[in-house]
Each structure stands twice: as C-alpha cells, then as structure tokens.
Specification:
328 residues; alpha/beta; Rossmann fold; 2 domains; three-stranded parallel sheet; cytoplasm; Sig_transdc_resp-reg_Me-estase; protein-glutamine glutaminase activity
Length: 328
C-alpha cells in the first residue's frame, strides 16, 4: 500500500521494496535511495535495531511507519532520538477518507525528508550543561516553544539546557494524541524542570513546562501571575491541532511583552505569523537556524516575515533564553 501511494506522485520513484531488514540492507547498498521508509515491526530484526545500524554505518533520511497507539509511542519517540527524520502513523481503519489522508501525509513527509538534515544520535552524547545560575531567572516571564518535524528531539535538547527553576514554558509540537503524553513523560524524565501533559485549567507555574495534547490547541487563560492552560478542540489551523499559531496568538494576547517566543525546526509555516504577532506585542522572538534544523520550513517562514529578534543554532538557544529571561 505504501508503494502504491508513493508512486501516485510523479516526483517520487520507489526504487526498491524490502520484506525485512536483511533484504533492505542489500538494496540500500545497491540502489542508494534518497529516503527510506521503515516499519517499526518487521521479521528477522526490529526496526529500531536496524535504524541504529543504519545511522551508524550509512546515515540517510528515514521516515518511520508507526502504529498509532499509546503502546507504540515510546518506540516511535526512540526512533526519532536515534536519528529518524519523521514518522507516519498507520491508519486505524481502511476507510477511503483515512487512506486518502494517510497518502497525503506520507507523500509530504517523504518529500520533506529528501532535503532534511540527518543528525546522528549517539548514546554517549553528554547531557547539555545547565545554561546559567538559577537566581538570574525572571520567573514572571513565559516561554512559548513551537515545533514540528525534528521537534521532539530539538525540544528535548533545548529543555535539557535550562535549569529546573526556569520561567513557565508552554509547548506546541505537531504530534498525535496517542504520542503526546508519552512525549511529555519522556521530557519529564530527561529534563531538569517538571514537564506536564497539559490539562484544561492546569495552573502555569515556574519550573514547569506544559506540552499540548495532540488533540487540542493549547491557549493561555487568566492574567498576571494567575495563568492557566486552556485547551480547545476547535478546527485545525494550518492543518494542525495543536497549532503553534493558535498558541502564540493566545500568549501574545494574555502575556504581551513578558513573553518569549521560540520557533524550532518544522515543515510548513505554522507559527510564523503567530511569532510576528508576539514580536509586534513587544515579546522577544527567536528562531532556530537553517543548519541545525532538520527542516527549515517554520523558522524560515518566520525569518521571511521579519518575525524574529534573532536566529540561532539549537545548541545556543538555551543561553539565548537565559539572557532574554534574566532579571534586570
């Protein structure tokens, strides 16, 4: 089915089909494809083991074909950590509408992967240092982070460089509901601050980060020091729910010039217009640079709009946020 879907697009050529990783290894050497789609569950070798070997010996863009279940979420997130560019969740049923949507998604993600920057994740990579001493934070501020393709790892790397008593952080990552809770739990285990899967009415406090559920937009409610999470199941914006634009617009309205907006790697333009609104409301706004982005769609669109106060590599972004949110 994947082959048939991809071959519908005149810009994509399926050069090989492998029934298991051992056959895939031979075909990759002979055919040198631009992109590999890789199922998590395969005979003879599981997809994660094969992906680790591939990233170590012959790094290339890989799109994982994942099961859209909470049970499958940790494996998919591990694949992204190991080096996969993106993933596509298998449709839960074979209805025409679901198959059509699945086809559009896998075609767009394979095309994006063809020009993506592949980073090799290594188990022995040291945890990034904490950016600056805790007493420098101005916890009256609010940091808003948006991301898409490549964002799960970019967000993790950024949060690992921020100390535990940071200003509150709200996050919108394009991710399905079945994966978003596992993503939040993974961040909570690996990052200094407390990370929550956001719930409606949840208080927004310093030292905490809040990840939008994959089924809802994340907005801000309240004023001043009494902010809470507000979830909305209104229509997708820019084809996404959660939408980064929706979150940034809400932050601009409720927090104004105390906010700091960050747009990380991602396909498309979601978040660019919202980042501009933040800047126009007096917020400080930053985007990830092209070289450190897996896909420079969203941050690139923000730069084109003049929505950023600065463009920085991912490994500098924690320091940038510390300086932006430090006590004056």
């Amino acid at each position: 089915m994947v082959t048939a879907i991809l071959e519908q697009d005149p810009e994509i050529e399926v050069v090989g089909l492998a029934a298991d990783p051992l056959e895939a290894r031979t075909l990759i050497k002979r055919l040198n494809p631009d992109v590999v789609t890789l199922d998590v569950e395969m005979p003879k070798m599981d997809g994660i083991t094969f992906l680790k070997n591939l990233m170590r010996l012959r790094p290339m863009p890989v799109v994982m074909i994942s099961t859209l279940t909470q049970k499958g979420a940790p494996t998919t997130l591990e694949a992204l950590e190991v080096g996969a560019v993106d993933y596509v969740a298998k449709p839960s049923n074979q209805s025409p509408g679901q198959i059509e949507a699945y086809g559009e998604e896998i075609i767009s993600k394979v095309k994006a992967a063809a020009s993506a920057r592949v980073s090799i994740a290594r188990a022995d990579t040291p945890t990034p240092r904490v950016a600056l001493e805790s007493q420098r934070w101005d916890t009256r501020r609010l940091i808003a982070i948006g991301a898409s393709t490549g964002g799960t790892e970019a967000i993790r790397n950024l949060l690992q460089g921020i100390s535990a008593d940071c200003p509150p952080i709200v996050i919108s990552q394009h991710i399905p509901l079945e994966f978003s809770e596992s993503f939040a739990n993974r961040l909570d285990r690996q990052c200094p601050m407390k990370v929550y899967h956001a719930e409606d009415g949840m208080p927004i406090k310093p030292g905490c980060a809040y990840v939008a559920p994959g089924s809802h937009h994340l907005l801000i409610s309240g004023r001043g020091d009494a902010l809470t999470c507000k979830l909305s199941d209104s229509e997708p914006v820019n084809r996404h729910r959660p939408s980064v634009d929706v979150m940034f617009d809400s932050v601009a309205e409720k927090v104004g010039d105390r906010a700091i907006g960050v747009l990380l790697t991602g396909m498309g333009a979601d978040g660019a217009r919202g980042l501009l609104k933040l800047k126009e409301n007096g917020s400080m706004t930053y985007a990830q640079d092209r070289d450190s982005s897996v896909v420079w769609g969203m941050p690139g669109a923000a730069v084109s709009l003049g929505a950023t106060d600065g463009v920085f590599p991912l490994d500098h972004m924690a320091d940038v946020l510390v300086k932006a949110a430090s006590k004056k």
